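Private note to self, pasted from the team thread so I don't lose it. Backbone tokens:
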């Protein structure tokens, strides 16, 4: 019995210590108001699911992206990283194009992979930010459009 109690205390201590060493900070939430999957509208489903995208960091280091579907509790999440083809292009005074890779894992089917991301961020004269984010994999293309809550600079993470 003493071994079980000691082991339990040890496990709880490790879990507490591990949780203290990893802080997650949300940088921006991208609300989805329109979406396409391989050219077909999935807007109604996205709105029913209260789906959104979020960029976040862990321990102020690496950048992560998650695609949350709130109603059914599923997500695709993973690390964002620069590739040879990553770039940030200022299209004009109010538009920026970011391209990068995303290594993701799906909670709903445990599949994982790498997707190419193309994000166009637009800021209007009232400083309201909207976006179009394209997720490209071998067998599908998702396009999400909406507005951004939060302010962060992807340039800091795509160096």
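Design output:
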């Amino acid at each position: 019995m003493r071994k079980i109690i000691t082991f339990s205390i040890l496990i709880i201590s490790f879990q507490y210590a591990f949780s203290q060493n990893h802080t997650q900070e949300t940088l921006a939430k991208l609300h989805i108001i329109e979406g396409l999957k391989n050219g077909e509208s999935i807007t109604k489903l996205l709105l029913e699911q209260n789906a959104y995208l979020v960029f976040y960091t862990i321990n102020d280091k690496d950048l992560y992206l998650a695609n949350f579907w709130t109603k059914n509790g599923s997500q695709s999440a993973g690390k964002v990283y620069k590739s040879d083809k990553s770039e940030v292009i200022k299209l004009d005074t109010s538009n920026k194009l970011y391209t990068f890779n995303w290594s993701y894992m799906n909670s709903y089917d445990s599949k994982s992979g790498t997707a190419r991301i193309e994000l166009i961020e637009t800021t209007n004269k009232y400083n309201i930010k909207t976006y179009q984010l394209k997720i490209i994999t071998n067998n599908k293309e998702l396009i999400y459009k909406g507005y951004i809550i939060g302010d962060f600079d992807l340039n800091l993470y795509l160096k």
